[in-house]
């Protein structure tokens, strides 16, 4: 192993002398006056080491450093690993925790029942109740659920809520069925006027068949 170390050090010294000689020659050549009596524009003399000279110097230095690294590896018997650039981790986005709102459902039973054979809207006696939007904080949606049937199954039975305080039908409350069996049908979203209003159930039949309203309730969805 001693002869290998001596040989390696000898090669290193020779390379070092060669590099120094090459660099010195390049620097001297770049600074030496031209032997061809070239005319320098603007009567100015170029000074220092030009771009080609600097590039050659850098290349020589790089080769010299590489020689040292390889020589060190030869002497010690180590293997130089290839270093891969470490990928920068992606910036983590800040996650803002939010408190999800909790939804709850409440039911309000509508009193009474009734039937009709008329084609026009008819108030069913005993179905009156008061309703105030202000009694339900966090109110999101309201639906009308009615248990209906058509006595002989001939035509269509209808039901809806009627705002007696304002003399108008409650928007979105109309439901219907053509079944002879008791059927629970649900309306779309209801739109009540503000304040305390007197609400009633109305029913009608598309034909002379009897529309039967058995029961009803409000499904109220709240969010807190």
From TrEMBL:
Transmembrane residue ranges? 7-28
Organism's domain of life? Bacteria
> What keywords appear on the UniProt entry?
Membrane, Transmembrane, Transmembrane helix
Q: What is this protein called?
A: Uncharacterized protein
* Organism annotation: Candidatus Amesbacteria bacterium GW2011_GWC1_47_15
């Amino acid at each position: 192993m001693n002869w290998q170390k001596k040989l390696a050090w000898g090669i290193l010294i020779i390379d070092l002398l060669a590099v120094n000689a090459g660099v010195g020659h390049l620097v001297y050549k770049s600074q030496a006056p031209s032997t061809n009596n070239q005319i320098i524009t603007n009567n100015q003399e170029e000074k220092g080491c030009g771009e080609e000279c600097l590039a050659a110097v850098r290349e020589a230095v790089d080769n010299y450093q590489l020689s040292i690294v390889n020589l060190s590896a030869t002497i010690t018997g180590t293997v130089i690993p290839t270093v891969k650039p470490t990928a920068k981790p992606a910036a983590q986005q800040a996650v803002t925790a939010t408190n999800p709102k909790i939804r709850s459902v409440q039911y309000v039973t509508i009193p009474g029942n009734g039937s009709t054979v008329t084609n026009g809207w008819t108030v069913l006696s005993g179905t009156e109740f008061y309703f105030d939007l202000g009694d339900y904080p966090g109110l999101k949606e309201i639906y009308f659920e009615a248990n209906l049937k058509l006595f002989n199954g001939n035509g269509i039975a209808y039901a809806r809520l009627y705002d007696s305080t304002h003399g108008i039908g409650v928007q979105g409350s109309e439901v219907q069925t053509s079944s002879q069996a008791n059927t629970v049908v649900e309306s779309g979203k209801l739109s009540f006027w503000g304040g305390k209003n007197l609400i009633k159930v109305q029913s009608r039949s598309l034909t002379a068949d009897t529309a039967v309203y058995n029961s009803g309730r409000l499904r109220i969805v709240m969010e807190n």
